[in-house]
Amino acid sequence: MSTRKEYDFVVIGGGPAGQKAAIQAAKSGCRVALVERDRQIGGACVHRGTIPSKTLRENVLQLARFRRQAEELGLETVEGNQVSRLLDRLQSVIQAHSRYMECQLERNGVEHLHGHARFLSPNEVEFMRPSGAVEQLRARWFVIATGSRPRNPDNVPVDHEHIYDSDSILSMMYVPESITVLGGGVIASEYASILAMLGARVVMVDRADRPLRFMEPELTDRFLEQLERQGGCFIGGATAEAVAWDGLARVRCHLDNGEVVETEKVLFALGRVANTDRLGIENAGVTKTPRGLIEVDEDYRTAAPNIYAVGDVIGPPALASTSMEQGRQAVGHALGQSVGHLARTIPIGIFTIPEMASVGLGETALREELGDAWTGHARFEEIARGQISGIQDGLLKLVAEPDTGRIRGVHILGEGAPELIHIGQVAVLKQMVVDEFIENIFNFPTLAEAYRVAALDLRERAGQPAEQRHRRIRGTG
């Protein structure tokens, strides 16, 4: 016989979006339960996605720096091909972050329920524990934050041994001699650069003509140059029609352009699917979009007025940072609190090697809006801190309105880019003009000094005829 419990909020999903929603509700004096099917809080972000991949990336970079410094000092290093060694620290980072999230829930009085929830009606879910015990949970409001999982199409038989997805790639215990990465988005590009740095020959395949199409071409061009220097390549304008392991040692990818790519392993990283199955949302009157995402309004409210949905389950931008804010705002709206709206100017940080970051408009978009754009560049090899830290392959680009010089976009490639971009975020949000970067002093030597260098470059270009200015932008002046 099942028992029934009453709450103000039941949050389904313990990733960044769900955790922040639960905390917001608890801090508002509500009785809150958070249902998570995994034993630990954190979701895919902490256990299979953001935290693991970024930790692995940091470990790889530290290893590369150590080897470079040892070579410069004439020291010998022990070479190895064990990914497991690089993953040792990863587990401790994951556990530490999961413990922090658990402690925060406990401090705020949120009841953590380990198990699976399924809607019975707009006001009630059936909660099943791993033991099979069933309870009924009633609440005034619900927040769905169940996240997403890798998309696995029929023509790519992911077996997690020869053909991996973005979750299982971390189970690979050694660096393969070669790997095909199917996809050109954030996850594909991040893992492609990590594996290339580890010594694998990486072949990226995507239907687009370049990876990360939403980023400035100058940034992605340099990313591809780095990949090619490490023996990798990018095949654009192509998709995989069939993928199969040969039963011995190679995986063959048959592309729609007639080409066949053979590598030791394959990583499929083309999209993710919202975790809505088994939730019984149809019993609550919650509807989905044609893409299978939960349909919400601008306040993250579903077709059922008392049920909200946030994070990956509602689609782009599907960033941990925005998902957390969505969770907070959804609860705030339900309680009638003034929590503002999600800012339209959201910075993007991509943890490739080298890193990339962007905020605001790109040069092409501003030209389409106003007919022209002013740009300024600073190259890290010309910045003292870039020389000191060995961060040579870097670039900071300012995009500003013609005549007014108002900053509309900032785009950065190079180590530290996701940190540096927040200066640009403030500049775009506050509608600063480039002269403010020129008139203010930056610490020396720092990478932030690149803002002043780029602003000076922009002002110099702005004084030139348009034809000459555009020629310099293309790198021919």
Keywords:
477 residues; 13 helices; five-stranded parallel β-sheet; globular
Description:
The protein has 477 residues and is of the alpha/beta class. The chain is built from 13 helices and 22 strands. The strands form five sheets. Strands 1, 2, 3, 4, 5, 6 and 17 form a seven-stranded mixed beta sheet that branches. It has a five-stranded parallel beta sheet with strand order 8-15-9-10-11, with helices on one face. A hairpin with a 5-residue loop joins β18 and β19. α3 crosses α4. The radius of gyration is 24 Å and the shape is globular. Residues 466-477 have low confidence and may be disordered.
Summarize the structure.
This protein has 477 residues and is of the alpha/beta class. The protein has helices at 16-27, 43-47, 50-73, 83-107, 186-197, 217-229, 320-334, 363-370, 384-389, 417-429, 435-439, 450-462, 466-473, and strands at residues 3-12, 32-36, 111-114, 116-121, 124-128, 134-144, 148-150, 163-165, 178-182, 201-206, 233-236, 240-245, 251-255, 260-263, 265-268, 272-274, 307-309, 348-350, 356-360, 374-379, 395-400, 407-413.
